[in-house]
Hints:
Elements: H1 11-38, H2 69-84, H3 89-119, E1 121-128, H4 129-134, E2 155-164, E3 168-179, E4 187-193, H5 199-204, H6 215-225, E5 227-228, E6 234-235, E7 241-255, E8 258-271, E9 279-286, H7 298-301, E10 302-307, E11 322-324, E12 341-343, E13 360-365, E14 375-379, H8 383-387, E15 390-393, H9 395-401, E16 408-413, E17 420-423, E18 427-429, H10 431-434, H11 440-480
Parallel strand pairs: 9-11
Antiparallel strand pairs: 1-2, 2-3, 3-4, 4-10, 5-6, 6-7, 7-8, 7-15, 8-9, 12-15, 12-18, 13-14, 13-16, 16-17
Helix pairs in contact: 1-2, 9-11
Amino acid sequence: MKKKNDICGDQEFENELKEKLNELSSSVDCFDKISARAFPEKDSDFSDSEFVVSDLENVTGRRKIVPVLKWTAAAAAVGLCVGILPKTAFVHELMSNFSKDADRQYSAILAEISKETEEHTYKIYDMPLDDYIRKDVLITPLYSCPFEESNRDDINVRIYVRTIFGDIPTNQIYAVEYEGDYSSARVLAAAESEAKITDEDIESIDESTGFYDPIPETENAVNTWFRGAKTDDVCDREENIVHLASFSRNDYFKLNDEILYLTTDVIYNSIDGDSSGVYYYDIACYNNNSESVDIPGSEKLWKKSLNYNGSSAMPEKNSSLFVRRDYFTDDESGSSVSPLCYYEPYANEELTDVISDHLGIMKRVSEFKKDKYDFELDTPADAVSKENMRIYISGINFLAFSSYSDARIEISVNDSVDPIKIGINYIRYCSQTMSEVESEREYDAVKRYQDNRSAELERQVQKEIDLEAKEAEKNYKSAATR
Length: 482
C-alpha cells in the first residue's frame, strides 16, 4: 500500500524525470565552469593577452556588476525544468494541501456551530439571504451580512446569536448560507465572529448591573434633526416627509477581552414616496455608565467567512439599503420647535401574539390621506427590540386636527386583515422636549383640542338628556290619553 504522500507514477514517467534531472545536473556543471572562469578564487595571469581579467569585464574595460551569476543561472535552470515537467501526482498533492487547509477551516466552523448550539443557548433567525444583506441594521445592528449576493431566489441564511442569563444576547455570532429548506447538507457557506464568550467571561458579569436607557439621547437626536409638520407628518431638514422610528437593544458585548454592558440605539427613517427601499440611520452605543462607546466596523467583528470549498465568502462591498447619517451629534442648529410625539406599536396588547424574532412590516393608516396605508416601515427582527420600538408623529398637530373625538391611528402588522387601533392613551410626548416648547400656537392647539373634546362630550351628554326628556314626555302623553 502506498503512503498518502507517495508520488504515484509509472516507469516511463520515472525515466523521463531522471533524464530531466541529468540535463539539469549538466547545466549546473557548465555554470560552475563559467563561474570559475569569471570569478576566480585568485587573480589569474593572462600575460599573453593585452589586458588582465581579474573580474568579469566588458570590452570597454568597465566593470560590469553581476549578482551571483552562478546561483541565478542554476535557479533559471530549475525553473525551466519545473516548467516543462508534466503535472504529476506530486503537483496535485502540493496544490491540494492548500485546499485541504481551507476545507479544514470551513469544517471547523460548522463543527463549532454544532457544538455551541448543543452546549449553549442561541437565538436563531432564518430569512432570505437578500433580506440580511439589505436590512442588516434591523437584524444585527453592528454586524453586516458576511456573505456575497446571489442571483438565486432560494438562497437563505441562518443566524445564531448566543444568549446568556436568560435571553440577553451576546456578540458571539455565527451564520450559515444555505439553499432551500435548512439542512446540514444544503449549507453553502459559514461565518464566525471574533468574539467567543468563555466561562471566565460569564463569571465576570454582574447580573445586578443594569443597562443604560438612552431615551434622552434618542429624543434629543430626533427633535434636532426632525420636526412635526401639518396633520401628523414628520419632516427632515430638507423638508422631506419621512417615516421615522427608533429602537434599542442590550448586549453583553465582548471587545478587547472585556465584557461591555452595551446598549445599542438605532434611529432610522425612509422618505415618503421613495420606492427604492433605502433607509437613513444612525447608531449610538453606550456602556452602563452612560458613556459613549466606539465599536469597530463589521469587517473587524467577523473573524472569517468561508464557502464550502474553502474560499472566502466575505463580500467585497456592502449592499445594505441602510445609509448612515450623523443623527447622534451635538448639532443643535436644526433643533425642532415642533417636538415629536411617538407611539410604541408592539406595546399594544393586541400585538403580543405577533411579537417574534423575525423581521416585520408595519403599515399605518392615516385619516388625513386618501391611501388606505400611507406608509410602511420594516421593523427589527429581535423581539425585545420590537417591544421598545417607537414610531414618531407630529403629535400635537395630529391631536389638534383629528376629526375623531377619540383620535386614533390604525396600523397593520405583517399584513394583518383587521387594522389595530392605537388610541390617544398610547401616544406619548417626548418628555424632555415638551417642557421646552415655546410655541404659543402649539399650546393653543392642544388647548383647543382639549376644549373641543370637552365640548363634544358635553354635547353628547346633553343629546342623551334631551332624548330621555322627549321619551319621558312621550310616555306621559301616552298615559294621559288612556
